[in-house]
């Protein structure tokens, strides 16, 4: 039996899922996608936040090019592969649980598509991004035209794909492919420890607020303004009247809550 693609463990309310195919730079084959789908379909109810990390020097080298080469898939076969990626990555983005990706080294092709499905991306300073599909004679199929293009703009994605260039972490940070850079002179903590500290903080939010944040904002941005405002109002009406609200607002009214200040 082959080694599982994912290793998982829990730290209190945080689920940690680690890509575990270091010898192939965590390239994604069909069974890897099936495992990702399975994991994000069956998150236990006590888990509030997920940290998605990867073993080795590289987060993910994208589509398993050897599997694709060896299988000589037809167009219909590959359409099915794409749909399986879309299903699995949709569960990451729209599953209602915040997912923090912890990046290092190559985040390329399908690896960038996977990272783009996460809600927060914490990057080691070694991280770099690329969409080398054009140079390999293929095309993105794991959601980049929707998710990655939304982050960096479609125009930038076209340029990255035509040139196949490698984008360094500083540019990735400016464009939103990473939200935080770690293991750097300014932020010497490891990306994994930083991601865990963010996860602990986010786990302290009201679960319904987290659900609304991760499941409605991206969807509303695909709607017309009229539909979006209506959906926002509905979402807020549910969240603002949820179980946690009175006790949290009570803390504020009685001056027990934290204040929003810098530092
Ligand atoms: C792989 C893959 C892979 C590595 N599929 N086996 N993705 C790419 O075009 C990226 C291809 N990979 C690389 O450019 C490099 O491997 C890395 C820069 C990521 C890492 O380099 P390095 O020197 O650390 O490792 P390596 O020696 O190149 O690779 C180690 C092993 O991993 C080696 O196998 P081995 O049996 O010879 O040990 C590699 O063949 C294997 N490996 N990457 C299969 N991707 C839904 S459509 C999405 C479309 C895409 O994702 S296109 C992007 C494809």
Automatic annotation (TrEMBL):
The keyword Lyase applies. GO terms for molecular function: enoyl-CoA hydratase activity. Its EC number is 4.2.1.17. This is Enoyl-CoA hydratase. Belongs to the enoyl-CoA hydratase/isomerase family. Keywords: Lyase. Gene3D superfamilies: 2-enoyl-CoA Hydratase, Chain A, domain 1, Lyase 2-enoyl-coa Hydratase, Chain A, domain 2. CDD domains: crotonase-like. It is an enzyme of class 4 (lyase). GO terms for biological process: fatty acid beta-oxidation. It comes from the Bacteria.
């Amino acid at each position: 039996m082959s080694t599982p693609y994912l290793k998982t463990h829990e730290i209190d309310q945080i689920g940690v899922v680690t890509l575990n195919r270091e010898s192939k730079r965590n390239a994604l084959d069909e069974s890897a996608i099936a495992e990702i789908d399975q994991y994000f379909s069956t998150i236990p109810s006590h888990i509030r936040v997920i940290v998605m990390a990867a073993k080795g020097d590289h987060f993910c080298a994208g589509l398993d090019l050897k599997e694709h080469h060896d299988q000589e898939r037809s167009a219909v076969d590959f359409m099915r592969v794409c749909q399986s990626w879309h299903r699995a990555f949709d569960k990451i983005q729209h599953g209602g649980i915040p997912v923090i990706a912890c990046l290092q080294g190559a985040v390329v092709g399908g690896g960038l598509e996977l990272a783009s499905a996460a809600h927060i991306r914490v990057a080691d300073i070694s991280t770099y991004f690329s969409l080398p599909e054009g140079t390999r004679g293929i095309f993105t199929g794991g959601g980049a035209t929707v998710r990655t293009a939304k982050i960096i703009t479609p125009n930038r994605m076209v340029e990255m794909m035509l040139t196949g260039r490698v984008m360094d972490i500083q540019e990735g940070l400016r464009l939103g492919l990473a939200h935080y850079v770690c293991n750097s002179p300014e932020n010497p903590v490891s990306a994994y420890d930083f991601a865990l500290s963010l996860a602990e903080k986010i786990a302290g939010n009201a679960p319904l607020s987290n659900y609304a944040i991760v499941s409605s904002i991206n969807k509303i941005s695909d709607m017309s303004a009229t539909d979006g405002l209506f959906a926002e109002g509905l979402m807020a009406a549910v969240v603002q009247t949820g179980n946690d609200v009175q006790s949290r607002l009570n803390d504020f009214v009685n001056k027990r809550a934290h204040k929003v200040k810098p530092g």
